Amino acid sequence: MNPSDTLVIVGAGHAGGRAALTLREAGFAGRIVLIGDEAHLPYERPPLSKALLKGGFKGECSLASCSLFSEASFIASGIEHLSGVRVTGIDTAQHSVVLDTGVSLVYSKLLLALGGTSRRLELAEHQLNNVHYLRTFDEAVELEKRLSPGTRLVVVGGGFIGLEVASSARDRGCEVTVLEAGARLAARALPARVSEALLTLHRCKGVVVRLAAQIEAFHGENRIDSVQLASGERIPCDVLLVGIGMQPNLELAHQAGLETGSGIKVDAFLQTSAEDVYAAGDVCEFARNDGVFHRQETWCNAEAQGRVAALNMLGQQQPFTGVPGFWSDHFEFGLQTVGVLAADAQIIEREGVEDGFLLLYLDRQSRLVGASGWGAGNNIAKDIKLCERLIESQTLLPAQQLADASVSLKGLLRGAHA
Ligand SMILES: Cc1cc2nc3c(=O)[nH]c(=O)nc-3n(C[C@H](O)[C@H](O)[C@H](O)COP(=O)(O)OP(=O)(O)OC[C@H]3O[C@@H](n4cnc5c(N)ncnc54)[C@H](O)[C@@H]3O)c2cc1C
Asked: Which CATH number fits domain 6-117+246-313: 3.40.50.300, 3.40.50.2000, 3.50.50.60, 2.40.420.20?
């Protein structure tokens, strides 16, 4: 890479921020421009629904706690950060982007780390006063202000964000009802056994969880004061949190004529269908090891792809091979998943400590392809890390030994490397 080159990153979230840092750490001394429409330095989103929502916000201090950079290290890095600025167009032939300020910027290489936007409910304008979504720090601040002991919070959607908010709000003394349209919680991402553990925990903690809930109407004059179900029952509501998933921000890619599917399509090196344009994070659709194209909406993916995309922008040609994984925290419990929870896999259950458990997914050759675990605190983390290494090792594993909690996973891994 020539020092006179300009590397432009659009989207100053996790993947974009990580990429900018990596470019400098890898020795690129030229111009790096990081453009983001949020007013903040890049930050990590997981604490928004957990620690920050639970503990309340103390202004910029809490934002600093989840920022990828300290203010000082950011200044020292010499990365130009255009905050509160939106990119409105890309001209791949001219190698330029257009900003909402009217200015154009020429790039040598471009990274699109655009993330996504919360899926919206169709509601009348006058109902929106107490309706919240949670994707950004600013939205978390607004939501947190509304949560007090006794507040009746109705959560639409029993996925991770809805349930984490339910857990944090309950810890703050709110009366919480979760309305999930499906037959079980977080069904898209979790095995039934883990969904069941989540449901039991939330109900034990006093969260009212309605499965197969069909919402008929939202009532209220200037705000939603009750949610009516198909049964006719009305659930009183002071605050409504909508957690029904997100949509990747694809407008720029469409306008620029990039190949897209459920995200911006990339090759093994995270390069899009346009020369010198890369994509990373929630917006990126890539082929897994098994050749299936998919997108991930996880911290691990944003972290790993941000890094790999940056190195490839510098010409390193590193294929992206990250093992997928995510975690989610609820009250004093946590769940974690690694690898692929393949529908045709053999599932082995293994006991964990303090009512925890681990589900191990084996392929036909008896190799570990995925694992999902549940446990108190961070108990499951060590086993999941070992599972990640067992997945990478491609070792043949005896199902009987995996099921036996007295046979250590570390021992099996050592055996794999013997
Ligand atoms: C509340 C919450 C909790 C989460 N908890 C977990 C968890 O426990 N575990 C886990 O694995 N994952 C979790 N995630 C998911 C994880 O945070 C995301 O996968 C990660 O943030 C994705 O990073 P990204 O850089 O791809 O997108 P983002 O972090 O969303 O960054 C994209 C940025 O691009 C900006 N942008 C978009 N378009 C433009 C444009 N045209 N011009 C300028 N800027 C633009 C956006 O505003 C945004 O700032 C959570 C997410 C949320 C919202």
From this structure: 3.50.50.60
Q: What are phi and psi of 271, to 5 degrees?
A: -90, 135
Q: Is the whole-model pTM more than 0.85?
A: yes
The CATH homologous superfamily to which domain 120-242 belongs is FAD/NAD(P)-binding domain (3.50.50.60)
CA distance 146 to 207: 18
Q: Which residues 6+ apart lie within 8 Å of 384 measured at CB?
A: 325, 336, 337, 338, 358, 371, 373
Question: What's the pLDDT band for 4 if we cut at 50, 70, 90?
Answer: confident
List helix spans (H) across 87-211.
137-146, 160-171, 192-204
Ligand 1 interacting residues, C-beta cut-off 6 A = 10-16, 35-38, 45-46, 48-49, 86-87, 113-115, 134-135, 161, 249, 252, 281-283, 297-300, 302, 326-328
What type of residue is 368?
A: L
